[in-house]
Design brief:
heterodimer; A: 221 residues; alpha/beta; 5-stranded mixed sheet; 6 strands; elongated; B: 211 residues
Amino acid sequence: MPKIKMPKGTPSIDMTPMVDLAFLLVTFFMLTASFRNAEPVTVETPSSISDKIIPENILMVTLDKDGRVFFNLSDAEARKEMLNNMLQKYKIGLSEEKIEEFSFMSTFGCTMQELPAYMNTEAAKRASFPTQGIPSDSTKNELLDWLSFAATAAGNTGRTAFEEAKLKGGEPKMEDFKPKFILRVDSKTLYKDAQVVIDVFRDLNLNNLNFVTSAEAIPVN
Amino acid sequence: MAQIAESGGGDHGKGKKRAKKGSTHVDMTPMVDLAFLLLTFFVLTSTFSKPKVMPLAYPAKPKINDPVPPKANNVTTFVLAGDKVYYYRGEFYPKSRPGANGPTELTEANFGTGENSVRKLLASWNEYVIKNKVELDKKLEKKQISDSTYDAKLNDLTVKREAVKVLIKTDDKALCKSFIDLVDELKIASIGVIAPTDLTAGEKELLKAKN
């Protein structure tokens, strides 16, 4: 009777399928992941049952838990227009380079006086820039100016995008291209502080606001 | 010895050098290690839930020439004070001018799901709308009505006499969390008319007495 020979040497497993799968997953995650821009504030939003995802063309005011006001406009083209209008109104100079940089930033928050210094700060250190946020009280309402210039600029770019979509065919709705007004508040922000910002929106006759919330399960009854 | 030594000096007379036979194995281990490292990184950092938005229409600021708006019926007022929530139904009657059921009093509610919770109270007050909405939902599911008709009908439903309308008033210490929670509860109870407004002097007095 012949003996069963055990194979000599180390047993090798074919790893190829596993590695293939690993690479497939890596590719998938790399392509689907979208990187968020660094934000100068961290905000913990309250939760709601709403399932509407955040729209594209937005003006977003962020309030941190101390009531500091930050602002973000999503469209780069509109940001430039808004900034130029603001610089002109407040007679503040900023280099062409910095204006370009500003148009690709995300949320920012500082007074117009602080803006040149804010822009000269390294991007990574802007989060710790000492500021009280954008002033929004009645004596020095810079937020009102930002918002009104931003609403006009975003309205213009929205209209251009709508015309382009129409040329491409299909039946785009103008409603989808209009800028939306988003308010992002921290759970611990006093409503009183949010009300100041809401009143600025209402002064500009922008009454349809959206609160950013994290998703929550809909109760079953 | 006219040959030029190709390498070293040791291998004299052993003929041509041959290329190594067998498969050319490249060690894949570092690459695979890296691939898994990247995989772990992307799995851990990617977030799938995009933030959501909750729409809320604020009343337009009254202009000077605006006519006095007519009084709505079936109004419930919620007052957010600090971390507490109070409510009263109907019009506000101060002590000096009590209504049919005496002066208005604030009743405390909570954001739970049990007794006296905002959810339960609203579900019973707004039963009419909720019942009709269920029928509309069914019709929409069976595709008997279009999305736009559904929206229009739901809108009509929420402004009817029987539907509850809500005023939200907040004091200086109310947090945004309770405000959003309340609006969320109102949306769960399918209330369509929501108006955040300011506290009146009479309500402030009642609040003071509560604390």
